[in-house]
């Protein structure tokens, strides 16, 4: 309470941080409250990843390729989270009536999105670790890590750029109706393909891989595999240092575009009266 | 005789059929409500094309492009056929979530004098039709750009039609099972039907022969009608060119169809039981019009 | 200097452009037209109007969710177009029938999350949540997941949410919509108490319920087709009809159909007639120029072959004022008209 007996309300960075953590909170607790989520988001992706491992086994692929699939399957946890838990989330929030409460709060919606991202990352990470550990043990994957700090850096940068992209999608989908869901689904498998989730992206040729690098996972997967399976000639579409630099650029661009898109959409929404309208 | 025929045809007004047809119409209208036809066409083609290209690249990078090997046709066609599983299982089960949480019409459905099972089936039919289009396109791409040994004149049409009719019935029943489970659990971030279909990829020998799996996993595959449906359909399409692997080679075509029919029947029975249980449980626990609000 | 007005609109207008097909020319729908309102701080102000009158459009503009297409709107002295963020720090919006929140979080967790969106300290938030829940009788449900609450209780929680950030101005958009009598009474008691305890705060209420508006509001604006038709205290509004007399007649037509009211309006001294069908009778509400006109009316009814069942003289109510100004009852839809709002 302040001197006038009014409730103290934070502003600026403090408000941003409070909003961020408040929106992340439901994400943190949801896997504990609804345990069925855990089954569907851990065991089932593990099975899907395993299917691709057995394809390689069926054609007698060298063992490191199985490791490539395991890493792809691990990172798919984040990709699916970004697609369905991040990009779609503002749209769902609009559907269930939370969006007007976000908009009416005095802080930036970017804080809400950042909270969703943080919560989503933590939950997806638990699934990713599950897939990584079980699949690595089950298929006896051997890693030769060249630099652990570099691996952590690449991983974090990949997530930053990836969730930045998710925020951008979230802002754009806010303007869409049910089509958002369908357009969103459109991305799932094509990105598995062009980003090289189950094979080294270098296989697709330099220019194809370069174009696919707009998706942070393309660079992130290639860099992480280079560090985890150091010296494998199938890897290295670009040197790791260059990939790190590009991931930084992507992070900045996606975050800036999403900020701009949110502000623009809110302005257009207020002008046209469509800001919180549910369209079935 | 005349009157029984008339009664049969007046089944147009029968509750289950009426429900099924109306739900199919609704599903189709929903699918046709895309804002942009080109995006819709991309959706139909790009997703399945990408999934098959992943396999083509995986295969090529290891075998140095030996696409004429029978195993390539096995993988390629298995993947194309499996699109129908994803669409049917995903379509039927997702409709439950959409009806409940997006359109919020679950209460109306469950208080209307309709057959709920038929409604659920019907809601997935449009997706199946779209899946057929995708599968045909992918198969066409395979014939044009990859050396798939497919010759329509040489297809074993009776085997193909029978395996499709029986197999898809079983797969639709699986969709109802997942859809019924969706009735009693909250909405998940992704589509559970899609996730189950993706997971069953592992056990059904869709993109690799069951021989590659450890024995205990093979036994799961043998228990699923999808495994026999894929094998029978591949044999019908490829004829003598179909790769034969030890696991299913000892089944002749008739035996394969018999096992498939038995499995499909089993799935239908299970789906009816699970559906009734789910409706009961949803009503007992006030979950009919649950709003996950996630 | 802080403005003495909590809400002020000057010639406020809002036009929607509606397309009926993708390629058709947009059609203009006027939702608000030249709305001029002044609501001083500390006032409980009501907006009364039928569906499509423009009430929700006005609330959306004032709560920064929608931009006006003409005129000016100020909230707490700040311009809704320019000072959006600062206004949001000072206001709250509660909409009846709203179902927001996360089903798997408890009542307290949901309210805490929204309080944090407004920048409240965790401790302050929890304290206020506890106090508010006590007042509305939800304290024992603090740890219940909102997915397990009944519609009424969930709505109560949503209602409380609006008061937790300690707003200067709160917009209540049909807050008792769909609530049972007891829950609606709790809500009304809560807002009355709130404005009594914090006399410098302002409430703007939209409602369909005349009695609610009459009971709660210091002043009321009656709005229809985007225009403010009258704005005064409920007592003054009712007083404006006191030169007229209101009679309630129940008649049983011989053929059990309502009496032909069209001709009744042409009877000398009859200013307005509304008819409601009952079980085997019609209820006619008549606004007459004076008691003298009653004789003409009764003769007319008898001439039509109808039987008079009961007759009652009544003081004008807010509903009579509304019918007088709008030309129809609150529950009756407006006739199709291009100048009608589309927001509700």
How many domains of chain A? The number is: 1
| Poorly predicted tracts of residues of chain B | none
Distance between the termini of chain B: 57 Å
- Total helices of chain A: the number is 11
Count up the domains of chain B: 1
Query: What is the residue-averaged pLDDT of chain A?
Result: 87
Q: Would you list the SSEs of chain A in sequence order as H and E? A: HHHHHHHHHHH
Q: What portion of the residues of chain B fall into strands of 2 or more residues?
A: under 5%
Shape type of chain B: globular
Radius of gyration of chain B: 20 Å
Shape of chain A, please? elongated
Q: What profile does the largest beta sheet of chain A have? A: none
Could you give the distance between the termini of chain A? 43 Å
Structural classification of chain A: mainly alpha
How many beta-strand runs of chain B?
0
Count interface residues per chain for the largest interface.
A-B, 55 and 51 residues
Describe this structure in words.
- The complex is a heterotrimer of chains A (280), B (294) and C (344).
- Chain A has helices at 12-33, 36-58, 63-87, 89-96, 99-104, 109-138, 148-173, 179-194, 206-212, 216-228, 240-272.
- Chain A has one domain (12-272).
- By secondary structure, chain A is mainly alpha-helical.
- Helices cover 75% and strands 0% of the residues of chain A.
- Chain B is mainly alpha-helical and 294 residues long.
- Chain B has one domain.
- Helix content of chain B is 73%, strand content 0%.
- Chain B is globular, with a radius of gyration of 20 Å.
- In chain C, strand 4 and strand 5 form a beta hairpin.
- Chain C folds into two domains: 5-236, P-loop containing nucleotide triphosphate hydrolases (Rossmann fold), CATH 3.40.50; 243-315, ACT domain (Alpha-Beta Plaits), CATH 3.30.70.260.
- Chain C is globular, with a radius of gyration of 23 Å.
- Chain A binds chain C through residues 1, 6-11, 14-15, 18-19, 21-23, 25-26, 29-30, 33-34, 96-98, 100-107, 112, 270-273, 275-276, and chain C through 14, 16-17, 57, 60, 63-67, 85-86, 88-89, 91-93, 95, 98-102, 104-105, 109, 112-114, 116-121, 124, 128, 145, 161, 165-166, 343.
